[in-house]
Design goal:
Elements lengths: L1 H7 L4 H15 L11 E4 L8 E4 L9 E5 L6 H5 L3 H4 L4 E5 L3 E2 L5 E2 L5 H13 L11 E5 L1 H13 L4 E5 L7 H6 L4 E6 L6 H13 L4 E5 L11 H13 L2
Parallel strand pairs: 3-4, 3-7, 7-8, 8-9, 9-10
Antiparallel strand pairs: 1-2, 2-4, 5-6
Helix pairs in contact: 1-2
Length: 241
Amino acid sequence: MLRVRVRRCGAKAVVCLLMVLVSMAVWSRDAHAQAAPVPIELEANEDEPGVVFYAARAPGLRPVTVVLHGMCSEPRRACRHFAERVTETDHLICPRARQRCQGGGSIWSGRGFEADIEAAIHRAFRVLPADESAPRTLIGYSLGAFRALALAQSSGRYPRVMLIGAKVYPDLRALRASGVNRLLFAAGSWDMMHDHMLRQSRQLARAGFDARFLGLGPVGHLFEPSFADYLPDALEYLRES
């Protein structure tokens, strides 16, 4: 059956094969809710950026959560910390930055990253049964948090945003103009960004914006295993009506 479907797809065989694999992972009988999330990676090519994504384990067209990795990192490194929880309800899409670092990994450029991120998301949309019109959740870590904030303040697609470990300065007017209605800051107590992000959250809250700060415990500027204990509260806040 798998071979027949791929053959019929002709020139689009690779995409069709991925769709079959995603369907098998998501819809396998009596297993979709219990199966561990499995990453699918599409490498960058001349026309499109790379992307890693995980299919939601819930049926039907699903919304998406987008995660932007840190400096000279890999999308898998960041996304694996979110996959188990996020895929309970959402597809998880993790674009790869275009610019490669000499020592490995990739880094977000200061220009053109918005188009690259959207192109990566649409690569995943070709495979995933996603509700493309649904509001998205956006999460950025470290340098990815800077790019996430810029994207959220300009695109109009991300009403829910989480920024982790970054010295960011949100623009209240830009947030409101772009339809962002909830912003969560997060950092470990040993992270140099902790106090700054706490102050920014309080400043926005005093201005009447729905912003909060989530302390990640006695950790530095890293994803520690304990992050899994804090993520449910973060996602619950972001997804509140």
